[in-house]
Write a structure and sequence with these properties.
2 copies of one chain form a homodimer. Chain A is of the alpha/beta class. Chain A has 2 domains: about 1-110 and about 280-290, 2-Layer Sandwich (Nucleotidyltransferase, domain 5); about 165-270, 2-Layer Sandwich (Nucleotidyltransferase, domain 5), CATH 3.30.420. Chain A is about 35% helix and about 25% strand. Chain A has helices at about 40-55, 85-90, 120-130, 165-175, 190-195, 205-215, 220-240, 255-265, 280-290; strands at about 1-5, 10-15, 20-30, 60, 75-80, 90-95, 100-105, 105-110, 115-120, 135-140, 145-150, 155-160, 245-250, 270. In chain A, the strands form 3 sheets. A 6-stranded mixed sheet of chain A has the order 3-2-1-4-7-6, with helices on both faces. In chain A, a hairpin with a 4-residue loop joins β10 (about 135-140) and β11 (about 145-150). In chain A, α5 crosses α7 and α5 packs across α8 (about 255-265). Chains A, B: Keywords: Kinase, Transferase.
């Protein structure tokens, strides 16, 4: 089977053996934003044509490829939702004779106030990361960080924060950025930002405090980005980690994983490091129980 | 006397009569960022030379003109601080023979966590707006919004939020801006943002919700900016208005005053509209009791 996590800016393809193990994988910059409408079949061939020619007949896609801007808009499935619900929401798109291409639906939910939440692709990573476990709190750090709650084998709800995008906008386009050099690193300045996020006053006040600390020489340009990152990730963790802590499964890769793990630990939680190929494992689980045409 | 509120991007000059009433006023774009170092005396002459030639001998300056980037760095006075403390911290800068030019110091404070706070210029506006009253909660909306607490005639503390600058960065440089047209206006979308700010979940989550509401067609492009503004101002008010409400004196001018008044009312408070010339009245009060050279 071929499994592809096809997102906005990139696509990651896996060739899986019948047991679901990864035989081969590749990543390209052909995210859906780079694929003109009506040319997704050609993009798929460009991405994994050699695997198809080698005999693969089943292709499962997840992520933004199922959005309005993707190959076909596949309706969100409402939470709570398990793997069976994802299977039930699959849609087949036309491709070459003898090859079946299916897109996994995203999930929708609402928070306590009835404000909608959506995800596309993360739901597959969550089931892949759980690897059969039926309970958990998972976090996918990023531009739009997601905290996902799983009970009895189903995603019962999730919460998204604009954490990463807010960091980039504040760093790049406010007075705060002018007092910062370099990228965030795990260390004392990051920890100070995380601690600050626990104080009263709210994020907007804490942000200005970053500036004030700089003015008074208590935050150096080399420390600024780490402090700001700690502040934002600290707020994200503060709102989403349960009061007593608990264990969080982190999904993803890169420096953000270390930073989130550090912030979660500072709040009394424990972070379990993520499987970078969770999408492949999730797609394998969905494909496993499926009656292919 | 000549009173000048000399800020970063503009300067507002007033000619006051002996009783402190405004005889004349003018505003220029000659904020301190536009005045090269060592040329402040020339900038002052360009701004109010005719008034000096007409016989004015006393000039009182407040605002960023007293910062490191201004005419002279005047040390912050610590809170609590009254008008007498501002007088005690005045510094005289050299100008033309027979004319005395003095700069009012800014104020510093610390919040509960010991993080520093600073203001330059707002302290003068606060005393001007109070017009002799000895108690109050005042709010100066803007890029860096300030909430100032006055007890027994002294500024006992204040809190700054990056509210306006965060709005501009999020509006201009995140995915949220792409779903918005026009400027914030007082109305139902703004109110919905203010209400949303009272919910659990935190600002980062509420920001993402703006996007989700747009995706589901529950927030139109025409409503987006108002909702985002309501969200940020709502968070600012939530953190700074005492539980029970109370009266807030707003200082400033322009559309932000209406929006803040509306958000304060939605939280059970009452807003009193500001005196746009509060700086002139504050400088008059400081000048009044002063022994001029």
């Amino acid at each position: 089977m071929i499994a592809i996590d096809w997102g906005t800016s990139s696509a990651r393809a896996y060739r899986l053996d019948p047991a679901g193990a990864i035989r081969e994988s590749r990543e390209t910059g052909s995210g859906i934003l780079h694929v003109p409408p009506m040319t997704f079949a050609a993009a798929l061939r460009a991405l994994v044509g050699d695997w198809i020619d080698a005999g693969e007949r089943r292709v499962l896609l997840s992520g933004m490829v199922g959005s309005r801007q993707g190959w076909r808009e596949v309706a969100y499935r409402p939470c709570p939702a398990g793997i069976d619900d994802l299977r039930a929401g699959l849609e087949t798109v036309p491709f070459e004779p003898g090859v079946t291409v299916r897109i996994v639906p995203g999930l929708s939910a609402a928070d306590e106030a009835g404000i909608p939440e959506v995800m596309r692709g993360e739901e597959v990573q969550v089931f892949g990361a759980l690897a059969g476990r039926r309970e958990g709190l998972l976090c996918l750090p990023g531009s739009h960080s997601k905290w996902v709650r799983v009970r009895d084998g189903r995603i019962c709800g999730f919460t998204t924060g604009l954490t990463g995008e807010a960091y980039a906008a504040l760093r790049g386009h406010t007075i705060l950025g002018r007092m910062m050099e370099g990228e965030p690193v795990p260390g004392e300045a990051f920890d100070a930002g995380v601690r600050r996020a626990q104080d009263a006053g709210g994020l907007l006040h804490h942000l200005f405090g970053t500036r004030a600390l700089g003015l008074f020489g208590r935050l150096s340009p080399a420390e600024g980005a780490s402090y700001l990152s700690g502040l934002l990730i600290g707020h994200d963790v503060r709102e989403n980690l349960p009061p007593g802590g608990g264990t969080v499964d982190l999904i993803g890769a890169g420096p953000l994983m270390t930073l989130y793990a550090r912030a979660i630990a500072a709040r009394g939680g424990a972070a379990r490091s993520g499987d970078a190929d969770a999408a492949a494992r999730g797609l394998a689980l969905i494909g496993e129980g499926l009656a292919w045409a």
